[in-house]
Design a protein that fits this description.
The chain is an all-alpha fold. It has one domain. Helices cover 68% and strands 0% of the residues. It contains eight helices and no strands. α1 crosses α5 and α2 packs across α3. The protein is globular.
Length: 125
């Protein structure tokens, strides 16, 4: 299990987008994963996860990889339930937006700082 953001990033970089999508679907649910990826189709991530399914667009891939890295780091540090709540909860480090919204809006630096605060300090916002 990844224990640092660097470890989590390395793991996310070494698995395919279909596996990342499957793991995020399992952890967060397809509707949230589609939302953070920027899709209006709440079921698209099921198709992205299939071996013969369509490929997500490059911007969605970036968001999915980033979200997976944050998921791994927070889940390893705080547990899966806390990680799930982190993604959907209002966060003052993100101007009270949720991390899902921040990721969809490509606010990666802000979301990464909020995730790091959670991992390093146990601060969820």
């Amino acid at each position: 299990m990844a224990t640092t953001t660097r470890d989590a990033h390395a793991l996310s970089a070494n698995i395919g987008i279909r596996e990342i999508t499957r793991r995020l679907n399992s952890a967060l649910g397809a509707t949230l994963v589609a939302s953070l990826a920027g899709s209006e189709d709440p079921k698209i991530t099921y198709r992205w996860a299939q071996l013969d399914g369509p490929e997500p667009q490059a911007e969605a891939v970036r968001r999915l990889q980033f979200a997976h890295t944050q998921w791994l780091a927070i889940a390893a540090s705080e547990g899966e339930n806390v990680a799930r709540m982190w993604f959907i909860g209002s966060n003052p480090l993100l101007d009270y937006d949720t991390p899902v919204d921040a990721i969809r809006e490509n606010r990666f630096k802000e979301a990464a700082a909020a995730a790091a605060a959670m991992v390093e300090d146990g601060f969820s916002g």
